[in-house]
């Protein structure tokens, strides 16, 4: 998921005209050695903090369908993560760096979410919104000065960028759909008389008094004949 967010951000900045003007967009750590090797205008989008948003954790499982509408898998709900980036501009002059950083800022604040056309992989498959917050306050992440100290570089103007993206849940493949009806086949068994045809035994044949309706005489009880109208009973 992280590399898919990176690619979405790169495409977004490319649409702003950075790559067309010869500006390279990279995701490297802006260390002192890295900065010394830079020779072309560059925008660095450095990911330095990843945290889960526990308030959006769900439960249960959803169904995944194929093109024919059959269930092919069951997937647990996605888990949401905040990806925090440090965005910096690198050029030969501070004025050029500020111009690049201003161009990046204008691009990022113009949208609250990454457009769906820029998403790929699992982000495109899930079809969920990927929120973008550029320069927002209250970023729950290490301060920029602490990041520069850890990188061993000199402090320079930077833009805080936070992206809230879903991590696809775990999928379990479902059994294939049933396409045929249930077929029941009987196996012939030998009857009690040794023949191959099974025969139901009556209780009378076993020498037992069966319940009413089984064994014994099967004669119907005699019902008195109906009298004709006007006939007296003897």
Automatic annotation (TrEMBL):
Superkingdom of origin: Bacteria
Region (Disordered): 186-234
InterPro entries, A to Z: Pvc16_N
Feature: compositional bias, Basic residues: 223-234
Domain Pvc16 N-terminal span(s) in chain numbering: 4-179
Protein's recorded name: Pvc16 N-terminal domain-containing protein
